[in-house]
């Protein structure tokens, strides 16, 4: 067998191996992407059935009140008197008597009662003060709903769920419009009590503290009237000195953290004591790990790291709780979250922060064993939230039954309460009921959100009554360990990226107050008439006129349809989608809150799912248009009411303006829906009609977007959507057709160059300028052992063409691939190749560089041809569409592209071996590859991986633009921030190994020593 034949066979085997490796890489990429779908079982709430509103009934004057002399009764009577004072008129009079006859056999939270008497005299009988005060609050609610007090006469059973907790609302939050105007502050920090805190001693502004106390007292009174009896109060380490922890004090003598803790504890103890006085439990709400600078240093120094699996680490925190409970007995426990933390929740200038460190099953169990042991010993309770989506080994315990059992199975402390969102994920429409709430031996509470963050923060009409009712009824039937609800009246998501609605103090918060009231009603009685609750809410806040009430109730009955089909693309939202080891939410085209996304990953996958659903994209587009019609009908129904029947012109204007805003926003979304679906259709089918439809949609969207921004940009009550990402996506899409034509042109030129190279040796074409260069690149790229001979005798022009043509094609291909929008991508790629080439040239030195240039340039040409072919159909948009949605095409492309990429370096080494030998040639290539990888790795590491990925993704538009602004790409995808340095270390190893192989191992020139 001749040497040439052996080399040819070896080249074929190498090519097969490289393609096989490429196929393996492609399969690994597909597995890492993990894009798959499955149907999501839908909640099935019964349709609300409204009955005509009755005529309002004026309340009587309360002429005599005989109730026990306690603060709880006093506040309840205040609410009743305020309700009567707020009524347009009174009619008649009555007395109210509450004998102090309590029964010790009943639990203190038993709120059953009986009301006896008639319109002129009412008597409450209850076994507990809780029941007696509930009766008074129920009477006040009757007054606000303009209903007869006598309707309540009879026995009332105890509430089905004894624990009814709220967040802190907007207590202590200053409504400063300037903080909301930009609309791009995605911080989750509420900045509650920011006016109270001072950085210098005495650390507390007493005037601001007094105002915050009044704020809190108002919130407590309102929550009690709604039926709640517990509150989650943010903070924990802020109030602890850690003086008595095992192993010695955390803070050094004179450390201001100790003085701050005492000052803050002294300042807020009256808040907690006031709640206790009114029968409201207080749970301190904290993320874990909760830290301060010195606390983190103490834990690092004592345990070597923030080792959350070490039980002794948790003894530090439980000692802090012992200290706190001893100092303020009014506190009832602690509420812990481990799934979100970090800078998005931090307040600048305040050394209290959190870190995502409790990420393993052992860490969670060690933490809970410590906290529940402390709670049992101190007669307190621990509420543990299962919300930990996407973080560590416990990342899916919120939505996966097996994970829930792995984390919490066997932890049966009577002091432990597990809190879980009722949806299988975050608070989105279309998600299934969270079946993890149906399991476990622990006490459970259900989380509900009134001001739905993902549905425009409550700025849209959104009656969740029927859904809440169905969910609670299903869960209670399945799990008798459920004993409460936690209703978020304000919290969830960024505080200042949406409308400035602050519960009880600013904006149109009355619109989503409905969900708070219906949640409390259902917690007391899961069979309550939710339509009646909506009617009572309408009477309390807007009008007692029956026709106006009917109009409001009618509009609210349609509100879920408008949101479910207008803010969501139903065929996509009805599926559980899995990708990159995560479960993206059903509203991915708005990522997140107010950012209309324009990235290819989301929109292409969304299109492919919609395409395969019943009715395809036409049905999905029609669905969005129907949602606009529904919202418009809601608006017309409310706007047609008699303005004179409303409680005030301002509240009517707020309602109608909210519906105007909803109609406008849903119309804009409907146009964008059509645009992105037709865009996907073009990439999928190559249909000119689909492209024309996209172009028409683009014009419509841009017109509606301009009007939307003109109307709502800077409006803190009705903020405009953030359209930056969508417009970036449209800009890239506009270039797709042009890029496809450029790719076709470059492809023709590149193929022509290769063809010339293939036939030049057998025709007179070889004597033409450039033909010899084309021939050399073809021979050197396919038979690199002939690279040296292929470049002998070449003219100077041909030699330079060996370098210029492949380099120009590489730059042009990358520019087209990025639509001339990502010079960062081009710079990194070309920079790495430039370093590779420079190092290679330094090694070659006096020897001819043209053989290796011909080999590398030739393979680069082939690699570019593959990319240009993929780009030639519908441009970069089509390229990425196939990557995200076509597994077969993705696998073929990656296999070939990977094989050619590695063949570049194989060919380079093979070409060099004829000059310097196989060992040294391999060393040259390894060193050059190491240097080419090392430089960009160090640059990215110096800039920061998150910052670098953000810039790159902004230009490429592959992942949601909002990802970096909200969660962080590295955090969301769980990419270690040290990755560039790991790459740099690997590159350094390659560089060193290459240098060691490249240097001569003997002074004597071997027979195989190269000739110049």
TrEMBL record:
Annotated keywords: Membrane, Transmembrane, Transmembrane helix
InterPro entries membership: GH (IPR017853)
Transmembrane segments: 741-761, 800-817, 823-843, 850-871, 891-912, 924-952, 981-1001
Keyword Membrane recorded: yes
UniProt-recorded name of the protein: Glycosyl hydrolase family 67 C-terminus
Organism: Microbacterium helvum
């Amino acid at each position: 067998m001749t040497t040439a034949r052996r080399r040819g066979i070896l080249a074929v085997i190498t090519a097969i191996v490289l393609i096989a490796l490429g196929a393996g890489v492609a399969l690994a990429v597909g597995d890492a992407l993990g894009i798959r779908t499955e149907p999501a079982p839908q909640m099935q709430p019964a349709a609300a059935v409204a009955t005509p509103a009755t005529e309002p009934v004026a309340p009587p004057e309360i002429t005599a009140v005989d109730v026990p002399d306690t603060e709880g009764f006093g506040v309840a009577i205040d609410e009743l008197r305020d309700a009567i004072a707020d009524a347009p008129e009174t009619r008649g009079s009555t007395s109210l008597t509450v004998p102090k006859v309590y029964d010790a056999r009943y639990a203190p939270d038993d709120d059953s009662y009986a009301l006896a008497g008639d319109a002129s005299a009412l008597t409450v009988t209850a076994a507990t003060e809780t029941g007696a005060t509930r009766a008074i609050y129920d009477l006040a609610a009757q007054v606000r709903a303009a209903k007869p007090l006598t309707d309540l006469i009879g026995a009332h059973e105890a509430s089905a769920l004894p624990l009814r907790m709220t967040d802190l609302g907007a207590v202590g939050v200053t409504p400063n419009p300037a903080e909301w105007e930009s609309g791009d502050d995605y911080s989750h920090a509420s900045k509650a009590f920011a006016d109270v805190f001072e950085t210098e001693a005495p650390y507390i502004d007493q005037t601001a503290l007094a105002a915050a106390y009044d704020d809190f007292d108002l919130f407590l009174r309102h929550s009690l009237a709604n039926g709640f009896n517990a509150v989650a109060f943010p903070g924990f380490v802020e109030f602890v000195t850690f003086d008595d922890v095992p192993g010695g004090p955390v803070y050094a003598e004179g450390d201001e953290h100790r003085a701050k803790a005492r000052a803050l504890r002294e300042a807020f103890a009256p808040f907690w004591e006031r709640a206790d006085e009114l029968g409201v439990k207080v749970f301190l709400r904290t993320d874990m790990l909760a830290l301060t600078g010195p606390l983190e240093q103490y834990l690092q120094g004592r345990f070597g790291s923030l080792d959350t699996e070490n039980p002794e680490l948790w003894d530090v925190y439980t000692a802090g709780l012992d200290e706190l409970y001893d100092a303020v007995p009014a506190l009832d426990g602690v509420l812990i979250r481990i799934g979100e933390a970090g800078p998005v929740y931090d307040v600048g200038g305040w050394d209290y922060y959190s870190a995502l460190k409790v990420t393993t099953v052992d860490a969670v169990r060690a933490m809970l064993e410590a906290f529940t042991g402390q709670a049992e010993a101190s007669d307190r309770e621990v509420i543990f939230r299962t919300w930990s989506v996407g973080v560590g080994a416990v990342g899916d315990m919120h939505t996966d039954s097996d994970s829930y059992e792995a984390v919490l199975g066997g932890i049966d402390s009577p002091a432990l309460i597990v809190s879980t969102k009722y949806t299988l994920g975050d608070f989105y429409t279309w998600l299934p009921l969270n079946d993890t709430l149906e399991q476990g031996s622990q006490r459970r509470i259900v989380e509900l959100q009134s001001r739905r963050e993902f549905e425009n923060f409550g700025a849209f009409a959104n009656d969740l009554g029927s859904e809440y009712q169905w969910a609670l009824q299903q869960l209670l039937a399945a799990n008798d360990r459920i004993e409460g609800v936690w209703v978020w009246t304000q919290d969830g998501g960024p505080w200042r990226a949406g409308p400035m609605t602050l519960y009880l103090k600013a904006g149109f918060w009355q619109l989503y107050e409905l969900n708070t009231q219906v949640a409390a009603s259902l917690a007391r009685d899961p069979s309550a008439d939710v339509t009646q609750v909506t009617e009572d809410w309408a009477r309390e806040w807007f009008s007692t006129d029956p026709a106006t009430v009917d109009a409001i109730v009618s509009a609210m009955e349609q509100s879920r349809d408008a949101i479910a089909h207008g803010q969501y693309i139903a065929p996509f939202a009805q599926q559980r989608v899995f990708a990159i080891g995560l479960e993206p939410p059903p509203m991915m085209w708005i990522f997140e809150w107010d950012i209309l996304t324009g990235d290819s990953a989301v929109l292409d996958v969304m299109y492919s799912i919609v395409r395969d659903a019943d009715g395809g994209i036409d049905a999905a587009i029609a669905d969005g248009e129907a949602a606009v019609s529904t919202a418009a009908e809601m608006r017309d129904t409310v706007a047609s009411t008699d303005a004179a029947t409303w409680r005030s012109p301002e509240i009517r204007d707020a309602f109608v303006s909210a519906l105007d805003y909803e109609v406008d926003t849903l119309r804009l979304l409907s146009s964008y829906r059509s645009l992105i679906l037709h865009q996907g259709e073009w990439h999928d089918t190559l249909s000119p009609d689909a492209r024309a439809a996209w172009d028409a949609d683009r014009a419509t969207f841009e017109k509606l977007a301009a009007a939307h921004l003109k109307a709502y940009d800077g409006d803190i009550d009705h903020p405009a959507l953030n359209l930056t990402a969508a417009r970036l996506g449209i800009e890239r899409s506009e270039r797709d057709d042009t890029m496809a034509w450029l790719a076709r042109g470059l492809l023709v030129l590149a193929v022509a160059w290769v063809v010339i190279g293939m036939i030049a040796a057998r025709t007179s074409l070889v004597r033409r300028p450039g033909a010899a260069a084309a021939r050399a690149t073809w021979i050197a790229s396919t038979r690199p052992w002939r690279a040296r001979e292929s470049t002998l005798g070449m003219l100077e022009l041909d030699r330079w063409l060996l370098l210029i043509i492949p380099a120009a094609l590489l730059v042009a291909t990358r520019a087209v691939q990025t639509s001339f929008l990502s010079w960062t991508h081009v710079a990194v790629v070309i920079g790495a190749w430039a370093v590779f080439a420079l190092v290679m040239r330094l090694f070659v030195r006096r020897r001819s560089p043209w053989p290796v240039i011909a080999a590398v340039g030739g393979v680069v040409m082939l690699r570019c041809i593959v990319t240009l072919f993929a780009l030639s159909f519908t441009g970069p948009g089509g390229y990425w569409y196939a990557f995200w949605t076509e597994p077969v095409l993705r696998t073929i492309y990656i296999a070939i592209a990977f094989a050619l990429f590695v063949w570049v370096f194989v060919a380079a080494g093979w070409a060099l071996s004829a000059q310097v030998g196989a060992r040294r040639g391999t060393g040259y290539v390894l060193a050059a590859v190491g240097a080419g990888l090392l430089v960009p790795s160090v640059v990215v590491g110096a800039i920061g991986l998150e910052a670098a990925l953000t810039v790159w993704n902004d230009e490429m538009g592959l992942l949601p633009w909002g990802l970096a602004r909200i969660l962080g790409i590295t955090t969301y995808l769980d990419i270690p921030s040290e990755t560039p340095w790991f790459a740099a270390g690997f590159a350094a190893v390659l560089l060193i190994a290459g240098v060691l192989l490249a240097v001569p191992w003997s002074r004597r020139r071997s027979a195989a020593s190269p000739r110049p």
